[in-house]
Amino acid sequence: MSGLDKMKSQILEDANAQAEERIAQANAQAEEIQARVKAEVEEAQQRMDQKTKTAVKNYHERIASSCDMKRKTAILKAKQEMISEVLQKAYEKVMNLSDAEYFELLTNLLKTYVQSGDGEIYFSEKDRQRIPASFVEETEKIVASKGGKLTFASETKQIDGGFILVYGGIEENCTIRAIFESKRDEWSDLVQKVMFV
What Rg do the C-alpha atoms of the chain give, in angstroms? Predict the structure, then answer.
């Protein structure tokens, strides 16, 4: 082998050695990049899995909360309907009391609402026709104890039951319906305690 051939051979060996070294370096870099990409992909996958789990958990919690709220709303509505029904039946019972019981109730209302001074008392047509003499006498005693005077009005009012007191042009609505409405919250609370506690 001549010197030129030896040189060519040496150059080729050096070139091959450098090429193999570069290929090895490239392969090492490729493996490093591949490992890094794989780690990043796995990390991203874990983050996505966690986000998905969190989203699913939050969705289930919202659904459960919504269902619970709807259930509570339905229960509350049912309770309110039952309370309203009880109060309506109580109202009907009062409106259907015997004359003696009914006018005893009106006597008690009168004790609460009558004032001193001159006034008038109005009834419904139905009640005006059935006022017992004992109620008139009791009314006179109650009014006298307050130092006033109360005239039974000859005209009637369009009311369900009870009466309306008028003092100096100012009306005090003492109808059974008005009493029930003014006491509705208080009586609803009482009914609720009795029924649901």
Answer: 47
Mention every residue, 6+ apart, whose C-beta is less than 8 A from residue 98. Answer: none
Whether the predicted model's global pTM rises above the 0.70 cut: no
Q: Where are the alpha helices (DSSP H) in 96-175?
A: 99-113, 125-130, 133-145
DSSP E strand boundaries for the chain: 117-122, 148-152, 162-167, 170-175
Is there a contact between 139 and 171 (Cβ–Cβ < 8 Å)? no
pLDDT digit string (tens) for the chain, length 197 residues: 677 777 778 877 777 778 788 888 878 887 888 888 788 888 888 888 888 888 888 888 898 888 889 998 988 888 888 888 988 999 999 999 999 999 999 999 999 999 988 999 999 999 999 999 999 999 999 999 988 899 999 999 999 999 999 999 899 999 999 999 998 888 888 888 887 76
